[in-house]
Write a structure and sequence with these properties.
Blueprint: E1 2-6, H1 16-30, E2 35-39, H2 44-54, E3 58-62, H3 69-77, E4 82-86, H4 93-100, E5 105-108, H5 114-119, E6 124-126, E7 147-152, H6 157-170, E8 175-178, H7 188-191, E9 195-196, H8 202-211, E10 212-217, H9 239-246, E11 251-254, E12 270-272, H10 275-286, H11 289-306, H12 309-329
Parallel strand pairs: 1-2, 1-3, 3-4, 4-5, 5-6, 7-8, 7-10, 8-9, 10-11, 11-12
Pfam families: Glyco_trans_1_2
Protein name: Spore maturation protein CgeB
InterPro entries: YkvP/CgeB_Glyco_trans-like
């Protein structure tokens, strides 16, 4: 299988594109039947040269933001099946429905959304994000990175609500609060001294995770930016869950339905359901460092075994092979998708 991986697009703190390319290169060395063809630019002439010289069997676009429709149309005309791996479901579903339209198939990082795309006639597979353990890893850090409780995330409504409710408790602890928009807190005045307003790169995030007694992982609510009008729920844990665990750091994570499919909740990882529940667990685990250490070690080993990008790309290979086999079985038809012509003014 020759995979054309189109990676250019909107960057992210999760480093999705470089993490995927690195893992795919390793897969290429492991599997003689697999060859990676990378396209880091949206230049159509370069795409044409790549297609003519390397003849990819299938193409995959990461996320799909800002990819010119002309590139997707070109691949369809060449009868190369092309898919998109979506990484922002269900929060951007209205955008995602538009993004997936020209693609043959989609992959989503959110389990609840795969049947939604299928119900709209788009073949879709579920594949969660993962972690790069060469970036997120255990390390010894300087004292300035140490804290009782650490939360590194932008201040979306669900997070603001929890932090506001816990403000009287949090202000008595060594708190690290990093991300955008935390000045929207009602109790900002009492927590201001703990806040860093800028996003920090992964190399710094990993230090704060390693320096924290407890890393707090609060999931977003499913329609917090009003782009999920049918309120499709979020069942899958965010990739921050894997990042924290890969640092061998103890985390308290807001519960999601499918968390147990990734970790043994109560043994590898601890989740909470309400603010009252969260405070009780924060108090308990701050007072029991050995329990934190044992659970963090279990989650760490589980993560390296099952949730790295190397593991994910092996599953991706099976997904692409399945789709490619299915696609080849179907009789070839003329391409139905066409670019919309601009109307002359």
């Amino acid at each position: 299988m020759r995979l054309l991986f189109i990676s250019r697009g909107i960057g992210s703190l999760a480093n999705l594109n470089p993490n995927m390319i690195t893992a795919l290169r390793r897969l290429e060395r492991e599997l003689p039947s697999f060859q990676l063809v990378s396209l880091p630019t949206f230049d159509k002439k370069q795409l044409d040269r790549v297609v003519r010289r390397q003849r990819p069997d299938i193409a995959l676009v990461m996320r799909g933001f800002a990819v010119p429709s002309s590139l997707i149309h070109y691949l369809r005309e060449k009868r190369i099946p092309v898919g998109v791996w979506l990484a922002d479901d269900p929060y951007h579903l209205t955008d995602s429905f538009h993004i997936v339209r020209p693609y043959h198939f989609a992959i989503t990082q959110e389990a609840s959304c795969a049947p939604v795309y299928r119900s709209r006639g788009k073949p879709c597979y579920f594949l969660p994000l993962g972690v790069n353990p060469s970036i997120y890893r255990p390390m010894t850090v300087e004292k300035k990175y140490e804290s009782d409780i650490c939360l590194i995330a932008n201040a979306f409504p669900a997070r603001i609500q929890i932090v506001d409710q816990l403000a009287p408790y949090l202000k008595t602890k060594r708190l690290v609060l990093i991300g955008k928009w935390w000045d929207r807190l009602r109790n900002y005045g009492s927590l201001q001294r703990f806040v860093q307003h800028t996003e920090v790169p992964p190399a710094e995030v990993v230090r704060y995770y390693n320096g924290a007694k407890i890393v707090l992982n609060i999931h977003r609510s499913c329609n917090d930016i009003k782009k999920n009008p049918k309120n499709i729920p979020a069942y899958s844990p965010n990739n921050r869950t894997f990042d924290i665990a890969a640092c061998r750091s103890f985390q308290l994570v807001s519960h999601r339905r499918d968390l147990n499919q990734f970790y043994h909740v109560g043994s590898d990882i601890i989740s909470y359901h309400t603010p009252v529940d969260l405070v009780k667990k924060l108090d308990f685990y701050l007072d029991h460092p050995e329990k934190r250490r044992v659970m963090a070690e279990r989650a760490f080993r589980h993560t390296l075994r099952e949730h790295t990008y190397d593991v994910r790309v092996r599953r991706l290979y099976r997904i692409l092979h399945h789709y490619l086999t299915t696609y080849k079985r179907k009789p070839k038809r003329r391409v139905k998708y066409r670019l919309k012509k601009k109307r002359k003014k």
